[in-house]
What does this fold into?
Amino acid sequence: MQTTMMDVPLSLNHLLERAGRLFAGNEIVSRLPDKSLRRHTYGEFHRRTRALASALQRLGLKKGERVATLCWNHHAHLECYFGIPAAGGVMHTLNLRLSADEIGWIAGHAQDRFLVVDDVLLPLYRQFAQLHSFERVFVFPFSGQTVPDGLDDYEALLADADPDGFEYAPHDEDDPVAMCYTSGTTGRPKGVAYSHRSTVLHTLVASLGDFWGLRGTDVVLPVTPMFHANSWGMPYGAVMMGVKMVFPGPHLHPDDLLDLIRQEPPTLSLGVPTIWMGLIQAYEASLAEGSPNHGRWTLPRGMRSLVGGAAVPEALIRAFDRHGIWILQGWGMTETSPVCTISYPRAELRDADDDERYRRAALAGVPVPLVDLRVRGEDGADQPWDGRSVGEIQVRGPFITGSYHAVPVEAGKFTGDGWLRTGDVASVDPLGFVRITDRTKDLIKSGGEWISSVDLENAVMGHPAVAEAAVIAIPDAKWGERPLACVVKKPGQSLAAQDLDAHLLGKGFAKWQLPDRYEWIDAVPRTSTGKFWKLKLREKYAR
Ligand code: ADP
It folds into this structure.
C-alpha cells in the first residue's frame, strides 16, 4: 500500500516535456562557426529532441548504452543532453580539448556506441577514429558543410524520425543519463555517470535564489563547455525554467565573447576564471581613448557571473564589480555534478562592508543543501570549523558519485564510511565558508609549514601590473620546498621582483612565505578545461 507520496521517479523527461508545453515560444540562440546567430525556439528544441530520441530508438539503442558527443556549445548539443536519455541512452560528452589519443582512449573505455560530432570537429575525429570504432557517426552540419560519404547526417536523422509517435524508454530514477570523464590531471581519466535523480536534484538545488537564482526572464551565456561537467549543469536548469540560452559555439576569444555579449546581453553567465580574466582585460583596454576597440563593447550591468573550477582572485571580483557585474564563486568537481559550495551573502553578512563582501566572495562558499561536507586532518580527525584548521575536503550526498565507470573502486578515492575524498585542501570558518588553500598535489611545504599557493597567486594577481600568475613548489635543499611564482605582466608594464615582494608584504604575507623566485612568462599554460596547468610549470621549473 502507498503510505506516503506517489512513487514518481525524478526524470529529465519531465523537464523536456515541461519545456515543450510551457516555454515553446522562448528562445535559444547559437553562434555558428561563421559567427552568425541561429535562433531557435524551445518548441523546436522539444520537437527535434524527441525526433533524436525516436531515431536512436529505431537504431536499436539499448538502455544504458553510451552515445558520445564531440561538440561545441550549441542547440544540437542541448538536444543530445535530453534526447539521448529520453531514448534510454547515456550522453557521454567528449572533451575536444584533450589530445586525440586521450579522446580515443576515453571513447574506447566508455564503449561508446554512436557519436554525434560537429562538422568543424571532423579533423579531430579523424585523428582518433582508429582508436575506437563507433557503430555510426552522426555529423551535425554546424557550419553547413556537406556530410562526407560514409558518415551520417544528423539533420537527416532527425528529419526521418517521428517525434509525435515517440515513447519514452521506461526508466528508474537511478538510471544513468550522462557521463563525463575527469580530466585526468592526476592519472588516467575516470568516468562519472550521473542519473536522472542526481541530475534533477542538483538542478533544483543549484537553481535556488542565493545560488544561480534562475528566473524565467534570465538570459544565460554558458561559456563553460558542455563537455566540462555538463556546463556545470546549467543546460538542465535552463530547460527547467525555459530561460533564453545564448550559446557561444566555437568562439571563446575575449573579443568574440564581448561582441556576443553586446549583441545578446546576458543576465547570467558562467565560466572558469581564466575566461573572465581575459575578458575584463580586453574590455578595460577598450575603454582607453585611442584603443582600436574603443566604444565597441558594453558590459551588461547587473549581470551575475558564476565562476568556479579554480580559485577566483579577489582582484577579479573587484574588477567586475566596478562595471556592475557580481561574481558568484562556486567549488565542485566532475564527481560532484559539480556544485558543492557557493559563496553568497548570508544573513549574517547583510551589513558587511565592501572589503568583507569581497573577501567572502573570494572564498569557495558555503555547502549547498543535500551536500554533507567535512574536513579531515592528516591524522584522520575532523577539523573544527574555525577558519584556520586545514585538511582534505570530503563530501557525501545524492549528487556525489559513488563509483567510477568500469574501474574497481580505488581505496584512496572514498573513505571507509563512504565519503568522496576530493584531494582539495581547505579550512571552513564558523559561518560555513570553505576556503580552498590548495589541491593536495599543489601544496607547498616549506620547513614544515604549509604555504598556500592559491593565496599567494591570488595576491600576486591583485597587483595592477599583473595579468595572471601561478605559484608552484620547487624543491629546496634546506626547506624541502619553496614557492616559485610564474607571472605574466600586463602589456607595456614593467615590474620587478622587489615590487611584488613589497606588494605581498603589504597584503600581510610573512617574509618566509614570499616566493623565492619569480619567473616572467608569456602565459600560464591551460588545462583542457581552461584552468591554470601547474603540472606543466612544475615540469619546467621544479627540477
Ligand atoms: P580538473 O580540474 O581535473 O579538470 P574538475 O573540473 O572536476 O577537474 O575540477 C575539480 C577541481 O577544480 C577541484 O577538485 C578543485 O581542485 C578545483 N576547483 C573547483 N572550483 C574551485 C574553486 N572555487 N576554488 C579552488 N579550486 C577549485
Residues 157 and 434 are 47 Å apart (CA to CA). The two ends are 68 Å apart (CA to CA).
